[in-house]
């Protein structure tokens, strides 16, 4: 499903990622752990073709992301939903319009947009606020809208970069439960976080990054909270 | 359908959101294009005037004194059958003398002492409109000069050359000013689009991340640039028309130039439409420049 083979990425000769080899199966839920600056966000950016590695190969669903033409990158991103710490919702558009954006971009019909957006908003529990602007929502609700936007077109992978960074403990648990639900429906989920609460809550495969290098993965019994 | 309307809605929404910037861009574009328009208007009218003046160019083909009546008729036939000739009027020696006396009554006594009429018979030739360029006139005159019975071919070469030279200079000035001010219009619209891009950089970033193609992101800005250019050029035509009518009114009331107001004319519809399309094109070019600088080249 996702393969990184000896991937390295440098910024001003400093290695943000160094010789990363990683394989993620379809339907997996992977936590990308590590402190700030460990290379988690860089790895996620490489997966959606926002940046190119300096060394190594990256495959997403059999396609070599490092060999994609610029014009092919948008089509990769349509298969990969992204959730951000700062939500990145458009303040002048309603919740419905924000969630509809990926479908509009793909040229979906009006009826399809209405149906899929309603389904996505219902799945994350903010369907009653579809006509409101994001500014009128709580931070937890905004993150739910961001998740709805990421899943509305049925992506094969969901990437989340510090999705609970702005949330309190209660909202963090809710959001993680939502990710678990999405994963249970067959979507591969990769969450980058430095929050131990998320790790305890998820209790799945953990990939730890330390200063751009990958720590050996703990065996199942060694995971925190197990 | 939503996908088709999205760029239009976004472009319109952006112009409404940034009303002041939009209005300032349209006004500055309008005044800049109006400056180009002044030169264009001057050029078009001078060309028209040159056309009328060249229509009035008469070429005098003077005949030799010893030419017979048959010879003159033969020459008339040759001239009239020439595809470059629109008309040829025969002036006999007697008619020439009569005209001289009518035009210069106080000097007519000068000819009386000579006994014989010294004025030659001639043809007053008008060339067809497509052969009135200075080069064509010269070529034709040289050819006719060699015909049997022709003593001299006379026309105002210097005057024709001067007129053609003046038109060429105005043409060059119009092109120069047009290029410089068009670049200014592109810059003005380009800056407006850059402001729009800057204010919406977050939205553009989000669109990129959710899989929008470059075209999808760029089209609203291309549309906005084209609309600004079209509105700017349409407004500049309004300004020009207003100024033109004012000029015509003023010149009509000034006794010295009376009559000129009927000779000058505003752009025909085709040039007006072309002007608006050029404005659209400049606006589009402004968007292209801004989007390139903004770095929308990346995926």
What do these coordinates show?
- The complex is a heterodimer of chains A (226) and B (299).
- Helix content of chain A is 34%, strand content 26%.
- Chain A is built from 7 helices and 10 strands.
- In chain A, strands 6-7-8-3-9-10 form a 6-stranded mixed β-sheet, with helices on both faces. In chain A, strands 2-1-4-5 form a 4-stranded antiparallel β-sheet, with helices on one face.
- In chain A, a hairpin with a 2-residue loop joins strand 4 and strand 5 (63-64).
- In chain A, helix 3 runs parallel beside helix 5 (139-151) and helix 6 (169-184) packs parallel to helix 7 (196-202).
- Chain A is globular and about 45 Å long.
- The two termini of chain A are 27 Å apart.
- Chain B has helices at 2-17, 19-55, 69-81, 93-103, 109-112, 134-145, 157-199, 201-209, 214-253, 269-294; strands at 59-63, 85-91, 122-127, 150-154.
- Chain B has a 4-stranded antiparallel β-sheet.
- The model of chain B has no long low-confidence stretch (mean pLDDT 83).
- The chains are: A alpha/beta (226), B alpha+beta (299).
Sheet bearing the most strands of chain B, described?
4 strands, antiparallel
Q: Which spans of chain B of ≥5 residues are poorly predicted at pLDDT below 50?
A: none
For the CA atoms, what is the radius of gyration of chain B?
31 Å
Overall helicity of chain B: over 70%
Average pLDDT of chain B works out at 83
Beta content of chain A comes to: 25-35%
Assembly form of the protein: heterodimer
Overall morphology of chain B: elongated
Residue runs with pLDDT of under 50 for 5 or more positions of chain A: none
